[in-house]
Amino acid sequence: MNELLDWILDPVQAVDPVVRTLLAGLGIMLETSVLIGLVVPGDTIVLVASTAVDGVGEYLALAFAVIVGALVGESIGFALGRWFGPHIHASRLGRRIGDENWARAQRYLDRRGGPAVFLSRFLPVLHSLVPLTVGMSTMTYRRFMTWTVPACILWAFAYVTVGWLAAGSYRELSRDLHWAGYVFVAVIAVFLIAVWAAKKLILRVESRHMEAPVAGAADGAADGAGEGAAASTAVTEAPGAPAPAATPNGPVLRTTEGPDAEASDPSSRDGSR
């Protein structure tokens, strides 16, 4: 196991630290700006780059590069959505993404606003679509940045820290323990499982904000209102009652007929006398 990991990790560490850091930042920028994240997830780019980190200086430099790259990519995605959003949606790439994914991103943003921007950074597909969708919406760039900056910082430090600690621990242990490779694999596996579980939990909680409304729900509400109005009209008019007569001065209120009416009509009593 140690030999296999050395074969995988050594070529990454052999890359010049400055070049490696810049490539990681560039990869994250492209992920959210031109939808490359739908093909090559940014999680993979950052984890691979972080396994080659040697020292606190490289760690901070990589984290900073990833954060800046993510924010630049989010800003480019916002600008593309603001200027070319409908054209991208109607393009061949937009059709490959699927109308349902576009609609889910739009519904999520409409219903959740800022929190949708924050949480989408941790969700598959949406983290690439939401910046474009925000650009096509009425949300301001300042408000968009207010929600996406903390999400990018949290995401970057989580991945860079885990990759750095796992690889660093492996290199320390591999000098004396032949099974140190299993420790590295276990740490990465536990982290990825935790990330997967967190994404599933977020999707489960937030899915109701992404789904289309149930067909006929609005019609049912309208029908209910119409039935209520009809019922109130039926209550005011007794079945079989004649319509009120009209006079030159307007409609005449319907009066009650029968003995009670005669008893309550003074003119009737006078006439009987």
Shape, principal axes of CA atoms? elongated
Number of strands: 2
Radius of gyration: 34 Å
Give me the side-by-side strand order of the main sheet: 1-2
How confident is the prediction overall: mean pLDDT? 79
Topology order in helix (H) and strand (E) letters: HHHHHHHHHHHEEHH
β-sheet strand percentage: under 5%
The residue ranges in which pLDDT falls below 50 over 5 or more consecutive positions are 218-223, 227-241, 243-273
Structural classification: mainly alpha
Number of domains: 1
Helix content: over 70%
Q: How many individual helices?
A: 13
Distance between the termini: 121 Å
The major beta sheet can be summarized as: 2 strands, antiparallel
Q: What features would you highlight for this structure?
A:
mainly alpha; two-stranded antiparallel sheet; elongated; 273 residues
What report would you give on this structure?
The protein has 13 helices and 2 strands, in the order αααααααααααββαα. The protein has helices spanning 2-14, 17-33, 42-50, 56-90, 92-97, 99-112, 114-120, 126-135, 141-173, 180-206, 217-236, 259-264, 266-272; strands at 246-247, 250-251. A two-stranded antiparallel ribbon has the order 1-2. The longest helix has 35 residues, at 56-90. Mean pLDDT is 79; it is low at 218-223, 227-241 and 243-273.
Q: Short description, anyone?
A:
The protein is mainly alpha-helical.
List the helices and strands and how they pair.
Elements: H1 2-14, H2 17-33, H3 42-50, H4 56-90, H5 92-97, H6 99-112, H7 114-120, H8 126-135, H9 141-173, H10 180-206, H11 217-236, E1 246-247, E2 250-251, H12 259-264, H13 266-272
Antiparallel strand pairs: 1-2
Helix pairs in contact: 2-3, 2-4, 3-9, 4-8, 4-9, 6-7, 6-8, 7-8, 7-9, 9-10
